[in-house]
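User: Study the shape:
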Amino acid sequence: MPKDNGAKSKRSKAGGGAAAARSPTAATKVINLALQGGGAHGAFTWGVLDKLLEDGRVSIEGMSGTSAGAINAAVAADGFIKGGRDGAREALDRFWRMLSQASSFSPLRPTLFDQLRQDWNMDQSPNYIFFDLVTRLLSPYELNPFNLNPLRDILEATVDFEALRHSDQIQLFTTATNVRSGKVRVFDTDEISVDVLMASACLPLLFKAVEIDGEAYWDGGYMGNPALFPLVYNCSSRDLVIVQVNPLSRLEVPTSARDILNRINEISFNSTLMREMRALATVSKFLRDGALDEQRYKDVHVHLIEAETEMRSLGTSSKMNADFDFLYYLRELGRAAATIWLDDAWDAIGARSSIDVFEKFL
């Protein structure tokens, strides 16, 4: 990727940016995080962030997120402003507990039969089946004319957006999809608001499009899950860590209608990530071959934190499951994945990619 495309963030132009503000010690390594969306599956990312913050060996320069990934990033950054690493961990814990508590009033909860199956999915839940059918027949403009969403209330109660917009602790990039143009829109830290986060997480079959500055936006996952280019162009660190929530591959071909729709969803929300990874891999190869100018182009070190085997067992319905036992399971899964990554990839950070990008994404 070119080192400068003329789209530097305001903080980078002003001088120093997030990395300079934190002044990491010699014992820490600076990374950027790309956080995927995925509804309740975002609790996996909560666990990853919790472990990275607890470990203390990495310093986060920037985070690019979509949907639940963007929300995790904003909540963590807000907590970091208020109380450093411990403040960020506490803020994430508080947010996910409040989300689970709010869901206790929702009809979309696991039934006793779902709990006995112990797979965290709600595929056999009559309420979920009815809800899934209705949302394919009626739009949110008909089903929810007042556009009620408890997530908005939780974010307004827990995140100080004014302080976040004026902070240079961590650069934030939030992805949304412009409904009319179909183009990606990436909001910088100084643009972040509750509307921006709600736009990034706006599934069009469930919620009305979110209007910002006269433009309507849907979930950012359609055009960037998440967008990687802001971290490449606007951050100094070469180390890009992708926190993967949606499985890239599956071993079997789906045959039921539910499994087919689930796989379509996974492929759609991974497609933009795959394209950007191909571009990064190609640039890195050309740089190694001496075909590109190292003064102009940036070789990015790519890393991946994932638990793809476990996440494959979770269907689309589980993304609506905010039961705290499930969220806690995902949190612990994320912590374990981050622990493995820190152990396996530590020497590679700052030196090289810790995965074979061509093998994984091409």
